[in-house]
């Protein structure tokens, strides 16, 4: 284990040297293209990220028994990190090789004189062919002009394009390494160590990488029920909540002190205490949920910040209040309604960007050990931008950025560690989004695969641009077996989705609906499932969306 740790440190160090060299070459190559500064900044940013990751992984700490975080990972995770980094090294080596074809000096100068024998197995040396095609030094002889012209043409038509591709791929892979290391830090067994989480919460390198935000969410989720802080809104809010303007079935807009808030309300017909308020257990669950939703979150969570909750006795509802996103007019519309609005037509790119945003939301929730339980199109909202004109004016809806949805509708019990068997709910309109194990009277604890299934149903709706309930002519009213609904949704995905969205999107939806991710002998935290979901769903959608 010590050998793999030493080798990984060596790869990190080599990667940093190659990153610095790549940035220098791009900085010197003023005629690289009009985006030279953009490429230079990207390489510098990625190199800084590599430095921060190295610090987090290889700084010894008493938290880890005097070892490093890297040494506390399983051997399989350590090997994955090494392989990921080796691929990055190869990418940067190729970028340097291509840049030096046009601009310059030998890559040999960047190599470490103390490179270990194990490191040399990574084959970091540039190809012989590339060394032989170095651009000749400028000379006055006119005889060299044709050769110089051929070299410039070769660079313009081949090498420059390939260099740009390599740098894009490098940034994409480095981003995926970053997200996977965050996943291993938070979702593996070490993520249950509160001292480790507090280190991620307070360490400067972790803060620069954004690990602190997710660590704080996980700490808050773990400590839910132990806080004495109340998120219940005071009586001063009563009038504003009473006058809230309804939005569809479950939402409303509330105005208070010159600000607009989004109110989500749900029926409460449970027990009451002597004062007519909700019972103590429900109050605790509601307060915990409001506390979790109030925490700062990265935009990728797609969850607006909750400012509190209030029981409205006259309506028998519990209201949650959320901030509305800046830059948009407070006129929300749900995906459920959009699917049935005449004239609304999304481009292929818009559908992929929306699907990517929702898949990232689910994977982020999994990472901090949350479950949603009610992931469906009626709980996915958009705030139209009235300053921009819609491409489909006949719909009467202003421009919508489909890459920026708001996800709401969380049930009361959020942390996955809390038991949630659920109450009987025989509504087909909601059952169609539920895994067969969770329909009707659920007899199994809610887990990650159930949210993934619900995501698959929503992605099917987006791909076919049709409500799930309408995918069967009788709206599933004759379905006596929960697995009949699943079978029909799968049939629709297999028959129609490929033509409309392509094979990759179709495979993503089928994987979500079947739960078949090729995972066996998973960890207690479902870490392998989370990695497979990220690789087979999130990364696939993200890459396609980036090129449409």
UniProtKB/TrEMBL annotation:
Location of region: Disordered: 110-142
Bias (Polar residues) ranges: 110-140
Q: Where would I find the DUF7580 domain in this sequence?
A: 334-542
The source's domain of life comes to Eukaryota
InterPro entries given for it? DUF7580, HeLo_sf, Kinase-like_dom_sf
Full protein name: DUF7580 domain-containing protein
């Amino acid at each position: 284990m010590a050998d793999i740790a030493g080798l990984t440190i060596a790869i990190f160090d080599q990667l940093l040297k190659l990153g610095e060299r790549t940035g220098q070459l791009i900085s010197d190559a003023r005629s690289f293209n009009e985006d030279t500064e953009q490429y230079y900044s990207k390489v510098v940013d990625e190199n800084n990220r590599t430095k921060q990751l190295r610090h987090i992984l290889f700084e010894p700490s008493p938290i880890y028994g005097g070892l490093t975080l890297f040494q506390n990972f399983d051997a399989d995770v350590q090997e994955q990190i090494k392989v990921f980094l080796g691929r990055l090294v190869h990418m940067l080596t190729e970028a340097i090789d291509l840049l030096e074809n046009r601009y310059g000096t030998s890559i040999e100068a960047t190599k470490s004189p103390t490179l270990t024998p194990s490191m040399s197995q990574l084959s970091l040396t540039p190809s012989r062919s590339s060394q032989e095609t170095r651009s000749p030094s400028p000379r006055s002889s006119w005889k060299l002009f044709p050769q110089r012209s051929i070299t410039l043409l070769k660079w313009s038509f081949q090498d420059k394009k390939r260099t740009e591709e390599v740098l894009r791929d490098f940034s994409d892979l480095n981003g995926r390494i970053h997200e996977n290391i965050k996943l291993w830090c938070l979702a593996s067994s070490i993520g249950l160590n509160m001292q480790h989480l507090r280190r991620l919460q307070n360490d400067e390198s972790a803060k620069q990488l954004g690990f602190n935000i997710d660590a704080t969410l996980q700490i808050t989720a773990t400590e839910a029920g132990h806080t004495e802080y109340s998120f219940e809104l005071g009586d001063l809010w009563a009038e504003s909540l009473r006058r809230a303007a309804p939005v569809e079935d479950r939402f409303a807009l509330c105005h208070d002190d010159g600000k607009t808030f989004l109110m989500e309300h749900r029926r409460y017909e449970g027990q009451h205490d002597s004062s007519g308020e909700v019972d103590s257990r429900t109050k605790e669950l509601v307060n915990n949920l409001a506390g979790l939703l109030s925490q700062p979150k990265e935009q990728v969570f797609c969850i607006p910040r909750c400012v509190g909750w209030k029981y409205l006795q006259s309506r028998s509802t519990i209201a949650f209040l959320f901030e509305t996103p800046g830059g948009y007019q407070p006129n929300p519309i749900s995906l459920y309604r959009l699917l049935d609005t005449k004239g609304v037509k999304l481009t292929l790119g818009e559908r992929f960007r929306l699907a990517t945003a929702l898949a990232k939301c689910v994977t982020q929730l999994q990472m901090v050990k949350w479950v949603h339980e009610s992931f469906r199109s009626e709980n996915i909202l958009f705030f139209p931008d009235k300053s921009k004109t819609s491409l489909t004016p006949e719909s009467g809806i202003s421009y919508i950025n489909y890459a920026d949805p708001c996800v709401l509708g969380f049930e009361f019990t959020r942390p996955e560690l809390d038991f949630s068997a659920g109450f009987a709910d025989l509504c087909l309109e909601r059952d169609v989004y539920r895994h067969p194990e969770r329909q009707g009277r659920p007899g199994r604890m809610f887990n990650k695969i159930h949210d993934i299934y619900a995501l698959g149903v929503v992605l099917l709706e987006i791909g076919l641009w049709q409500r799930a309930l309408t995918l069967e002519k009788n709206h599933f009213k004759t379905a006596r077996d929960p697995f009949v609904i699943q079978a029909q949704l799968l049939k629709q995905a297999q028959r129609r989705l490929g033509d409309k969205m392509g094979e990759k999107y179709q495979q993503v939806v089928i994987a979500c609906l079947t739960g078949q991710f090729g995972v066996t002998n998973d960890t207690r935290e479902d870490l392998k499932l989370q990695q497979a979901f990220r690789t087979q769903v999130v990364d696939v959608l993200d890459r396609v969306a980036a090129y449409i």
